[in-house]
Specification:
It is built from 17 helices and 29 strands. The protein is α+β, with helices and mostly antiparallel strands and 697 residues long. The strands form seven sheets. The chain has a seven-stranded mixed sheet, with helices on both faces.
């Protein structure tokens, strides 16, 4: 496949910028239909057990309270692919924070106060919430997230590792991490004429519609979901969440519209998180640092509600030459909230461990860390044997080293000191797969020379409205301002979720196909268009369903400079540079924003973000942005994102790869490697907070 597009419109300004800064953009929480009631859920106050009684009478006597839904009176739900949505269906409490009731009232304040006063009795059972690498109940699942085989093995790892003159055997761990989008999870639901309309904060309206249709046993065409504006998700809104289900249940029960907004303190238990991991890396190499043996073993956790296995060992199947390899996952089922997607699931966790081990290998072999990675460039993807459609990692490493000023770096740890500060630099590679899903779109030409593209894509802040308009304008060969894009509603042609860095590739392919067909249709016509205009529809199910002959990945390189305060143990990042090979960059303005956003999240992963499980209480203790520390602008004075030119004809008609997640993938390892270079201390447990680092200084 070759790109059919002309030179892209570059740097187009976000189309929704003015709407957002003026308050014109309407989010799910902004929807309050006439007669709307307000709901507040009641989280379970035990870590495991059964609900034995809900004393609702006193709460129902409060002025303004309309209903208390429990497992005894809530609407019955149909089947669900995701059991986390089967709420208020029985008395079971699988983890603390699981919703056991919903209070519906005239105002949010009345609902919140009544929910806090609701008295619930429990039969408490013993719970187990701590992940351990030696947990007796660990098992090997069939698959990890994304459908990847849990275990892959090539060659004779044990013999190759034992025979290697240079060997690394290290274990890396990281706590759970939580998505904290600025916009709260919220839904407003309304039943009318036996149909359901939901305004939902979601990364995919079509997906939410299908889930609600199944739960309430309705034909999909009788469910409308609108997710026009979404204030961030990072994976936590990538699947339907409790608000849309509970709001719809409350609306059906009361016969009135109902709005439900989750308090931030409850998100840790009900909207997913990045699972904690314990990862053992064994790398065997020649004296020159060329890898012969590579083992990546991951231990992680899931919940009793559903199985979700972070695919952290999968990137090791792609990155470096490794004729003898073992990559595997083991998981234990605990009484914890269900883990789920968080920006770059699998890659972010796994590449932290792999790239830290590569740094340790470089030190052990006495090879520059950039050069070590270049020496281990594979000719084809090690796991599948497929040729890469394009692999720009070497270009990213070389260009990043040039921009960063890597040449001449003193490799000795602790060699650069200024007063109480130790300075260091580190590097790490990044990768993310090219993912594509079937999508539908329509393109319409009006007699006045304007065009409308319709697709149920969701713009979660990435600039989808802008980039899809660019794709359409280029395929139609018309001015950008003549194209209007409608998205964010399930009444539009079906589209996959905004996730997995697959949105633009999947939606854009369908938009390009529809617009290309429309352009051909218009070229074949003579005379003016009819008053209703001309519409063409497209579906990419056939194209995206084909198995590619190539291994398709984006790649990147991260370079970090840190200073470590030997008095306080504080780590400050003074410079952070990322260079990426991500196919054709369609809009430099929005692309740079995505890269920098991912790098900033990676900085938080390295230094500040963590969720601590309280073993006795059975829940995560960091429940707000005062205790869960996300990085701010002042946390990195200089952050830059660059990319190399890459033409890849084996992706989609635009020649683009996903960019939303690769920015986070290598950042944490680059920072951790820089901390080692600054101090000589190799900490293998994220985040690198002062209390962990100071005792070693």
């Amino acid at each position: 496949m070759t790109s059919q597009l002309a030179r892209p419109t570059t740097g187009a300004v976000r189309r929704d910028a003015r709407q957002k800064v003026t308050g014109e953009a309407r989010y799910a929480v902004d929807r309050t239909p006439p007669g709307c009631l307000h709901a507040c859920p009641v989280p379970a106050a035990v870590a495991r057990g059964r609900v034995t009684a809900v004393h609702a009478d006193a709460v129902l006597k409060r002025p303004g309270v309309h209903a208390v839904l429990t497992h005894e009176n809530a609407p019955r739900l149909g089947e669900a692919d995701d059991p986390t949505l089967l709420l208020l269906q029985d008395d079971r409490v699988p983890h603390r924070g699981w919703y056991v009731a919903v209070v519906v009232a005239d105002t949010p304040e009345i609902a919140r106060e009544a929910a806090g006063a609701l008295d619930v009795d429990y039969a408490v059972e013993d719970h187990d919430v701590l992940l351990r690498a030696d947990h007796p109940d660990l098992y090997t699942p069939e698959e990890a997230n994304g459908g990847f085989p849990a275990v892959r093995e090539r060659g004779d790892l044990a013999a190759a590792f034992a025979a290697s003159p240079v060997r690394i055997d290290a274990t890396y761990s990281m706590s759970a991490l939580h998505n904290h989008p600025m916009e709260p999870h919220a839904s407003t639901a309304r039943w009318k004429d036996d149909g359901l309309t939901v305004y939902d904060s979601s990364q995919g309206a079509s997906t939410v519609r299908d889930a609600l249709a199944g739960l309430f046993e309705l034909p999909p065409e009788r469910v409308t979901v609108v997710s026009a504006f979404v204030g961030g998700g990072f994976g936590s809104k990538g699947t339907p969440r409790p608000p849309c289900v509970l709001a719809a249940m409350a609306s059906r029960h009361t016969g009135r519209p109902v709005r439900l907004v989750l308090p931030r303190r409850e998100l840790a238990a009900v909207v997913g998180h990045r699972a904690p991991t314990v990862q053992r890396l064994r790398v065997g190499a020649s004296e020159e640092g060329v890898i012969s043996a590579l083992s990546h073993e991951v231990v992680t956790q899931t919940s009793t509600v559903k199985e979700f296995v972070e695919q952290a060992a999968v990137p090791a199947r792609t990155m470096y030459t490794s004729p003898h390899s073992f990559t595997g996952h083991r998981v234990v089922t605990l009484d914890v909230p269900s883990p789920s997607w968080m920006r770059a699931p699998g890659e972010a966790s796994g590449m932290y461990a792999l790239e830290s081990a590569m740094d340790e290998l470089a030190v052990a072999a006495g090879v520059d860390p950039v050069e070590l990675r270049l020496r281990n460039e594979p000719d084809a993807e090690p796991d599948s044997g497929k040729p890469f459609s394009s692999r720009g990692l070497a270009d990213c490493l070389r260009e990043g080293a040039r921009l960063f000023g890597w040449e001449g770096r003193d490799p000795r740890p602790g060699a650069r000191r200024e007063g109480d500060l130790l300075w260091g630099t580190g590097v790490a590679s990044a990768t993310y797969p090219v993912l594509l899903s079937p999508c539908k779109a329509s393109a319409h030409a009006a007699p006045d020379g304007r065009y409308t593209v319709r697709v149920d894509a969701t713009d979660i802040g990435t600039g989808a409205r802008t980039v899809l308009a660019q794709i359409a304008a280029e395929a139609l060969d018309v001015p950008l301002d003549s194209v209007r894009v409608e998205l964010g509603s399930s009444v539009l042609p079906d589209a996959p979720v905004a996730g997995g860095s697959s949105g633009t590739g999947s939606w854009g392919w369908a938009v390009h196909k529809a617009c290309t067909a429309l352009r051909g249709t218009l070229a074949d016509r003579s005379g003016p268009l009819p008053s209703e205009g001309v519409t063409v529809e497209a579906d990419t199910e056939e194209e995206t369903g084909e198995d590619s002959l190539y291994a398709r990945h984006a790649f990147g390189a991260h370079f970090a400079e840190v200073r470590v305060d030997t008095v306080t143990g504080e780590v400050r990042v003074s410079r952070l540079i990322g260079v990426y090979a991500a196919g054709r960059i369609l809009n430099p303005r929005t692309a740079r924003s995505q890269f920098i956003g991912g790098m900033t999240m990676g900085l938080g992963m390295a230094l500040t973000e963590h969720s601590t499980m309280d073993a006795a209480f059975g829940d995560y203790t960091e429940r707000d942005l005062a205790s869960y520390h996300v990085p701010a602008c002042a946390d990195v004075p200089a952050i830059e994102a660059h990319w190399v030119e890459e033409h890849d004809p084996h992706l989609n008609p635009m020649g683009s790869k996903g960019i939303g997640e690769i920015g986070i993938v290598g950042t944490a390892a680059a920072i951790a490697n820089a901390v080692h270079h600054a101090t000589g201390v190799r900490l293998r447990d994220l985040p690198l907070t002062p209390d962990r680092l100071l005792p070693h200084l």
